[in-house]
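<goal> How does this chain fold?
<sample>
Here is the protein in question

***
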Amino acid sequence: LDAHKTVRDAVDYDGWNRVTIKARGKTIKTWINGIPAAHVKNDEYLKGFFSLQVHSGEQGTIQFRNIKVKELKKK
């Protein structure tokens, strides 16, 4: 988990966080509050839907605001 320390330190556990996701072709990149979090290459799911999901936490309320979806221009 030491490899993810920078990203964990970027999370505001008491306020709002900006999560950015860029999916182009086989490449998916994510950032949390401007800090790179993931860079994945996957050729299994190139079309379809996306959803928002939380993977951990014992209990609490999850809220989303200002969700923006933008189609990327073709290269």
